[in-house]
Amino acid sequence: MSAPVAAAAPPAEPESESDVRKDHINKIVLSDEVQRAIEQVLQSSDPLDHPDFDPTDYVNQLFPNEQSLSNIDDVITKMEVDIGLIDDNIRSVVRGQVNTGENGRIALREAQQSITQLFGLITDIKSRAEQTEDMVKEITRDIKQLDSAKNNLTYAITTLNHLHMLVGGVENLKRLAERRQYGEVLNPLQAIIEVNQHFQQYSEIPQIQTLSSQVQQIQTELATQITEDFRHFFAPSAGGGQGRMTITQLKDACQVVSVLDKPVKRNILKWYINLQLQEYIQLFHENQDIAWLDKIDKRYAWVKRHLLDFEEKYGTIFPQDWEISERITVQFCAITREELTKIMARRRTEMDVKLLLFAIQKTANFEQLLDKRFQGSTLTEMKASAGGGEGPDDQKQPTFIDLIGQCFKAYLDIYTDSIDRSLAELIGQFVQQTPQQLLPKDGASVFPNCAELFVFY
């Protein structure tokens, strides 16, 4: 096989410096990454597309020998066709770029027109929003005026209703109070008192002052009338008064008293409790024999019987929150403490250890019974009214323990003196014994007198 035609060709003339510079300028050098990216996109097997394309090798491949030169015209024709196709592609790309620029300018103009239209729409919307806001302000201003008028009208109607209730209720209460229909007085009285408090802000109006004075007068009259009814019913000299009032009426009267001022209830309770303990004060007066310490248990037996009798006969009259039984008991304890203090001071010489211990024991048992029976709410109320509750000990729940027994503390020296005398007598007996009797027997380490001292203590 003969050598390739390209190798047999005469050597080319050396290129001029301008041609070399021109080829250098026209040659495009791409990086390896760009070449790999192009190969992945185009995926062409044409040697002309290879980055390491060598024209000499390519010509030698086309014409490997002299015989292959016979089809050189076909190769040239094919090359010209390829060149034409490439030129067409280049022209299409260039024209496409020209059209793209024109399309971009057209799109830009359209976008500018759209922005102008959008700005106009936004301006129109803003103008309409301002108009709507002004309209809403007008509407809300009218609504506020209507709402204020509604509130004023509602308040005026409520005030007129209260005024009507107050005017009509005063006359109605007067009639019910005169008939002593306390069960029907309760609800209107509560309503009128609340309405009267509502009208205190209009106390400068003469008519309101008159109505308020009438309400206060009715409360005063009711307090006086109910107090008299209680006195007529419970007082021993009431006579026919007991037939005029019933237990049901008194029960309703207690409910009315709970609505009235607190001093009314306090005065009735004070009078009634003193009435209940009048018999006790007379029976156990300090001049009576039954009042002495040896019969102190009779005091406690009396109050037990009296409480049972009271709760059976009149327990349903008073409300539960009045704690009448507990109040009677607390007052009984106070009176008993005072009476015992006076009688022990007057008859101190008659007291001995056995009598003192007997009284203390009976009193302690009675106080424990009371502490289990009652909750001590009355004691708490009395303590609060006395101004207690400041010290740490005042925070404890009051009890009945030592409520009466504190009167014996001043006389405990009788007990201690008796113990001292007994101990002195016992020691004197030990001193009089012989040394043989004092020493331990049979080698024991305990003195025989120790057992007697232990039993004594």
TrEMBL record:
Coiled-coil intervals, chain numbering: 122-149
Keywords (A to Z) from UniProt: Coiled coil
Keyword Transmembrane helix annotated: no
Domain of life: Eukaryota
Protein's UniProt keywords contain Coiled coil: yes
Ranges for domain Vps53 N-terminal: 51-433
A cellular component annotation (GO) from this entry: GARP complex
Skewed-composition ranges (Low complexity): 1-10
Listed Pfam families: Vps53_N (PF04100)
Region (Disordered): 1-22
GO biological process terms on file: retrograde transport, endosome to Golgi
PANTHER family to which the protein is assigned, alphabetical: VACUOLAR PROTEIN SORTING-ASSOCIATED PROTEIN 53 HOMOLOG (PTHR12820:SF0), VACUOLAR SORTING PROTEIN 53 (PTHR12820)
Name of the molecule in the record: Vacuolar protein sorting-associated protein 53 homolog
